[in-house]
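Hello forum,

I keep getting stuck at the same step: I have a sequence, I want structure tokens, and every attempt I make locally crashes halfway through. Rather than fight my setup again tonight, could one of you with a working pipeline run this one for me? It's a single chain of 293 residues.
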Amino acid sequence: MGNSAVVWLCRLVALVKQENRSPVEAVGMGKAAKGGKKLPSAPLADKKKKAKKNPLFEKAPRNYRLGGDIQPKRDLTRFVKWPKYIRLQRQKRIMLMRLKVPPAINQFNMAMDKNQAANVLKLCKKYQPETKEAKKARLMEMAKAKKDGEEVKSKKPQVLKYGLNHVTTLVENKLAKLVIIAHDVDPIELVCWLPALCRKKDVPYCIIKGKSRLGQLIHQKAASCVAITSVKSEDEKDLNTLISNFKAQFNDNMENRRRWGGGIMGIKSQHVTQRRERAIQAEKAKKLGLQLA
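Reply #2:
Ran it on my machine without issues. Output:
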């Protein structure tokens, strides 16, 4: 190696140390310098331009520790202390799912469907009892007619019969043509015997969802049951259709009277049971594999 080569190598090393570049880049730079052409700088070498900050707006970081800034809004549904009646109805629902429910009570979970309920309510609305205002007006007209010496003739109206004791009497005397029972009567002991009585007396009955829906028919908040005793001639066909359907669905349905309810465990218990079953199946498969081998 000649002296000129050693000098050139020393200059290259010094240049690398000075500019923090690789020897390849330094060689390229030396060649470019000899030729007199400037190579474009690497794109990564460009310095990022800093955004100019407005001095009028100062950064004020928030402190969420004790005594600091107001905490952000969060969903606190899990921590709500619900009223007692809500807690009780939720606990009752869970208990009815977990425990075994006897058929006499479980039958109230098998109510009529939405379309059937619409047809029943449509028929019942035609035979709603009169309101207090309507009754007052009717009695006033009768009193005026009597005062004027006119003969007052009043026909017995065809309306829904309500009240548990009244409906029970109608069923016992076989005067009710159709009995409609609410599925959510509380306590359920008030009406759990009524389907059996209807079957005994061969009176058609049905179970509808919502005691409040029955209550609306008789201008009250809720009703445990209502009964239809008579209808107009134009509604006889609709009533007979409903009676035949409900007799097959409720009165003559032996399956509903024998089916137990409840026994549904929570999701965690179900997962534990499934894991246990899988472990048992794996153990059986392992034993079978050993026997086959």
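The chain is about 50% helix and 5% strand. If your local run keeps crashing, start a new thread with the error log.
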